[in-house]
Amino acid sequence: EVQLVESGGGLVKPGGSLRLSCAASGFTFTNAWMSWVRRAPGKGLEWVGRIKTKADGGTTDYAAPVKGRFAISRDDSQDTLSLQMNSLKTEDTAVYYCVTDIGEVWGQGTLVTVSS
Amino acid sequence: DIQLTQSPSFLSASVGDRVTITCRASQGISSYLAWYQEKPGKAPKLLIYPASTLQRGVPSRFSGSGSGTEFTLTISSLQPEDFATYFCQQLNSYPRTFGQGTKVEFK
Questions:
Q1: Rounded distance, CA A39 to CA A20, Å?
Q2: Which of A99, B12, B14, B47 is spaced 20 to 30 A from A115 at the CA atom?
Q3: Inter-chain contact B43–A64, Cβ cutoff 8 Å?
Q4: How buried is residue A86: exposed, middle or buried, by Cβ count under 10 Å (0-12/13-18/19+)?
Q5: Contacts of B87 in chain A (CB under 8 A)
Q6: DSSP element (H, E) containing A30
Q7: Residue in A with minimal Cα distance to B47
Q8: What is the layout of strands, in order, in the sheet containing A45-51?
Q9: Residue of B nearest to A66 (CA)
Q10: How many CB atoms within 10 Å of residue A85?
Q11: Residues B48-71: what's their mean pLDDT?
Q12: Tens of pLDDT along B60-99?
């Protein structure tokens, strides 16, 4: 079964850090460009960033609101995608989804709450 | 950034109705547009990508059309399981952007 399973969400204070993970199974993760997408409470979907495959250079792109604070990485040996979130702000509160780049596969999401 | 404007935001319809949702891009995106269906508590499901290509397993009552800046998602005969929120996403350039969504409700 093709699946993405996120973990690592929780409550963190403003200015804090959190690392999300996404475990992939059922498809060749090494060949997949991967993205993170989020949905803040009561808001629409917002693309966070993307990482290419190692074969395509492994480069990343980020949305302006998170650039310089968030970092996406991948461990192809473990079929795992990560999102390191630093200097968190209240406006980063959202459900974070791990997604294949063209959106064929989505995880169930993990909630990140940034609050004092 | 490319802005996507969906219309309408809400739509009331009955089983059997033909439903059309529009997504307009602020600049040309060729056919790099995806349509998703989202139900409460579930991850979004890719229905169509690129603009008019139905994903495997998606019922043929769903169809997509358009290119450039104007796109439509049509459900030819609305079924009970189709009451959901639909949104578009452009995959022409980064940052990827989404439409604000169209909620299809039971009339």
A1: 15
A2: A99
A3: no
A4: middle
A5: 44-45
A6: none
A7: A104
A8: A10-12, A110-114, A94-100, A34-39, A45-51, A60-62
A9: B95
A10: 23
A11: 97
A12: 999 999 999 999 999 999 999 999 999 999 999 999 999 9
